[in-house]
Amino acid sequence: MAYHSPHDRSRKDDEDDPVEQMISRTGCAELHYAVQECMAEHQDWRLCQSQVQTFKDCMMNFQNARKEQLKKQQSASSESRPS
């Protein structure tokens, strides 16, 4: 049986993992993998704080942009409704 690195993007099971799918849609996947690689290397999350913070910042930016997009959609749909 061939060994697969946890960061081998060609693995079939990543395609079925809802968390992997969600993270890939955020644009922050590479930062997520950096956190995983750091954790695998050091086995201590305290040594990976810069990677964790960078990933967290990326996710916050995505969430804020998503909120803005939803607000615009809601205001556009409420403006187009007849009163």
UniProtKB/TrEMBL annotation:
Coiled-coil positions: none
Region (Disordered): 1-21
PROSITE patterns: CHCH
Any one cellular-component term (Gene Ontology): mitochondrial intermembrane space
Gene Ontology BP, a term: mitochondrial respiratory chain complex IV assembly
Domain of life: Eukaryota
Protein name per Swiss-Prot or TrEMBL: Cytochrome c oxidase assembly factor 4-like protein
